[in-house]
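so i finally got all the pieces together for this one. its four components total, 294 residues if u count the protein bits. some of the lines might not be protein, just check the labels. i wanna see the whole assembly predicted at once instead of chain by chain like last time, that was a mess tbh
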Amino acid sequence: MATHEFVEMFRERCRERGLTFTHQRQVIYQAVMSAKDHPTPEAVYEKVRRRIPSISLGAVYKNINTFIVAGLLKEVSLHHGTLRVDANLGAHHHLVRNVCGSIVDLDEHDVEPARVRTKLPSGFRVERQNVEIVGICESCVRKQSSQ
Amino acid sequence: MATHEFVEMFRERCRERGLTFTHQRQVIYQAVMSAKDHPTPEAVYEKVRRRIPSISLGAVYKNINTFIVAGLLKEVSLHHGTLRVDANLGAHHHLVRNVCGSIVDLDEHDVEPARVRTKLPSGFRVERQNVEIVGICESCVRKQSSQ
DNA sequence: CTAGCTGCAAAGTCTTTGCCAGGAA
DNA sequence: TTCCTGGCAAAGACTTTGCAGCTAG
């Protein structure tokens, strides 16, 4: 995509969601979009700094959060804020409640594993797979609808 | 399991791994084992404090880390330390490299989703599923074997 | 007795917040 | 002009570290 096209597309997405278009936002968004991996805010900051040396890390955080709230970006992990400890050493999967944050186990035998139909990067050795079934529990549904 | 049995089992696990058995460790381990969800260090601390009021949060952190290194406990998320941003809004899955931490996308169509064969908690509404294929990449294998 | 652990407090990350000057609409 | 944003610095949350006294083996 040409730079001009990208800028216009971003301008349109900002308009749709009522966000002010700024140069900083455009560069931050492009930095995330062009990353193959899923960068940390620090990595985004380093990338943006090459084009806007005066950018602050705080602005990167603020805008990443703004974009997440606006639905322009997502977080990879639902529970990155704090360590979660697991005493279940066997293979198992997780049922994650995306509102209250509670995580409970699903036994390995209750989940038929996902199958990958594509070729993985050469030399990649699969050790295991984690499946997260993400949703909302009954009591959170009630709380939301009673608001 | 009776308390006495549990203590002996834990004492044995400590012996196997060369860890000193202490009352604090035993209570911390039991607090995690008995939790249905996957508690945060803070939650473990609160639980342990009911039995050992003098326990410090630092001791809880130190021991959780000791247990993880010893293989007695695991972390739920491989990337909880910092936010990871995802610009791919469509359904997709992740290939996670557990040594270097890099995360790349797997297209939704390249993964046949997992299927849950058990009954989920009543009223739980599934929104999506995340599949993480976890392993080690070629360059990390080389680095490890050259050490 | 010795090594290793505990509690305490200080320090270190990662992230958010408050403020004011400056830019977008 | 009016509102919102950006940069800066301080504060806040989560976690680790250093140390002196105490406990397990």
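Chain A touches chain B through 73 residues (CB under 8 Å).
The two ends of chain A are 43 Å apart (CA to CA).
anyway lmk what u think
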